[in-house]
Amino acid sequence: MMISTNETHNPELRSWVASANADGTDFPIQNLPFGVFRRDGSVEAFRVGVAIGDQILDITAAQAKSVFTGDADTAALACCAPTLNAYMALGSHAWSALRLALSRALREGYALQSALSTCLVAQADAEFGVPAQIGDYTDFYTSVHHATNIGKLLRPDNPLLPNYKWIPIGYHGRSSSIGISGQELRRPVSQVMRPGATEPVLAASARMDYELEMGIFIGPGNALGEPVSMQQAEQHVFGMCLFNDWSARDVQGWEYQPLGPFLSKNFASTVSPWVVTMEALAPYRQAWTRIEGDPQPLPYLDSPELREQGAVGIELEVFILTAAMRAQGVAEHRLSHSNFRDAYWSVSQMVAHHTVNGCNLQPGDLLGSGTQSGPEADEAGSMMELSKGGKEAITLPNGEKRTFLEDGDTIIFRGGCQAAGAARIGFGEVRGALLPARSLA
Ligand code: CA
């Protein structure tokens, strides 16, 4: 099914929420991403909200004011919950109905503006929760540039394994340790084999890294045993967020063969508060192409829709703020940037491959895109790549050097989309800070 734009994407639309019309806002009226929030420091239940400018529209409060009707009201009722799972399960017809109703209700001139304005909470006064109860989390590896860069460091003579260009590679991760932006994680302790050593030791990771990824939230699931075709795949996708898949490279290097990552990845991953819907992303779709000379995907991973608009243009950035930078009042420093359009495998291919054996996805499941590195050296999506495996230190503006993360470092991802004839929309940010390891004593 092709993705099309409609009146909600019109770049001329303006909102009665003034901050939504400001230049550079991530959350103009054309975006309308979903998250869960409560007033900061309160013991209120988390509830579903939609970002508009620097505000949040409380959907439960708006629904109670009878501003929605018909399918939009049914959809809004599914949002009267502490997570987005019930809403995600409804599917694209309901999502479109609520998006259209929200777009009309937040536009300049809306008749019930004064009633709806009482349902706004400033984002600055809110704390956020993980948007869904994530049943299962699967991490893919869709950047051929990242796979090649990492492969060179782990296997210099054999960087890209032969299956890479045929299969969307992935592994089943751990959902229990997925946290929301602002997460503070302890440097993990695990078994590592130090360079030159003959026996491993239990130690705090000395090679902590981030991974710049997109998170993909599943909407309606598929029945066990029933694969999802490429044509149906995006009907099963609710939207996307920013995702930091923290990684302990020394742990990974020792444990990853033969079954893949385990403790090097499962101690923490961080999502951004806002999930930008696939409908909101419609104007930024691009043709999906295969690099000249590479194998074409098998038929179950191919479709006309993929070729025409399977890629999504999302500009991504990574920033670092060290403890010393914070103390010195130095601004966060951009480490790298890349674009999700360069992913080797599309969102639809991830879904089609994940389910081709009959595996069932469920509403709220999370797919990680894998680290998004681009073709250029400054488009590396991890510090392991930027520092060439720890051999070349990065110098920060205040003179500090990094090969891997140090205790007290904060990592921030931001992302946004722009296209001719469309408004610019953004994902907000995901940030997380590394704390010292627990004592081994
Ligand atoms: Ca990853």
Task: Give a short overview.
The chain is an alpha+beta fold and 441 residues long. Helix content is 20%, strand content 26%. It has two domains: 7-129, Fumarylacetoacetase, N-terminal domain (SH3 type barrels, Roll); 137-435, Fumarylacetoacetate hydrolase, domain 2.
Name the CATH homologous superfamily of the largest domain. Answer: Fumarylacetoacetase-like, C-terminal domain
Provide a count of the helices.
Answer: 12
User: What is the correct CATH architecture of the largest domain?
Assistant: Alpha-Beta Complex
Give the names of the bound compounds: calcium ion
Return Rg in Å: 22 Å
Which spans have pLDDT < 50 for at least 5 consecutive residues?
Answer: none
What portion of residues belong to β-strands? Answer: 25-35%
Distance between the termini: 58 Å
Q: Count of DSSP E strands? A: 26
Query: CATH topology of the largest domain, which one?
Result: Fumarylacetoacetate hydrolase, domain 2
Estimated structural class: alpha+beta
